[in-house]
Amino acid sequence: MPLDTSQSGPRSGRPTAHEARRRLEHARSSRMARIQALLGAGQSAEGHLMSAQAEANRRVLKEIEEAFTRIEDGSYGTCLKCSRPVPAERLEILPYTRYCVACQHGAAARP
Questions:
Q1: pLDDT at position 47, please?
Q2: pLDDT at 40
Q3: What angle do CA 19, 25, 28 make, to 5 degrees?
Q4: What is the pLDDT of residue 6?
Q5: Which residue of 4, 31, 39, 50 shows the fewest CB atoms closer than 10 Å?
Q6: What are the Cα distances from residue 67, in Å, to 25, 29, 77?
C-alpha cells in the first residue's frame, strides 16, 4: 500500500494519510470557492463560459471525494490502471489523481 498511514511522517517520500487528507481538503475548499465565485458573477455574455467552468470544477470535486474514499479503503496513491504507486511528486501537485503519468496519458489518448 503506497500511502503511509503513520502520523509521524512519510516513509520513502510517500504522503501520510493525514497529509493526503489535508491536501485534498485544501483542493476541495479551493474548488468550492471557485464555483461560488463563478456562480456569484451572475449571468452575462460570458454566462455560458462561467457555467462550463463551474461544471468542470464540480467534476474535480467529485474526483476529490473519490480520493477521500481511496484513502479510507487503502488504495490512495496506487494507479487504478497499472496498480503501481503514483509518484509522491504527482500526488503533491494533483492530490486527487487516479493514475500515474503513463496511464493518464494512455487514457487521454484513447477515443
A1: 67
A2: 74
A3: 145
A4: 45
A5: 39
A6: 11, 14, 9
Amino acid found at 91: L
Counted residue by residue, the chain has a size of 111
pTM of the model: 0.74
Query: What is the set of domains in the chain, with CATH numbers?
Result: 17-109 (1.20.120.910)
Q: Exposed e or buried b for every residue in 2-38, given b needs 16+ CB within 10 A?
A: bbbeeeeeeeeebbbbebbbebbeebbeebeebbeeb
Residues of the chain with pLDDT under 50: 1, 5-11
What DSSP state is assigned to residue 99? S
What's the CA gap between 111 and 109, in Å, rounded?
A: 7
Q: What nine digits make up the cell of 47?
A: 454566462
Q: What one-character-per-residue DSSP string does 13-71 give?
A: TPPBHHHHHHHHHHHHHHHHHHHHHHHHT-SSTTHHHHHHHHHHHHHHHHHHHHHHHHH
Q: How far apart are CA 59 and CA 105, in angstroms?
A: 19
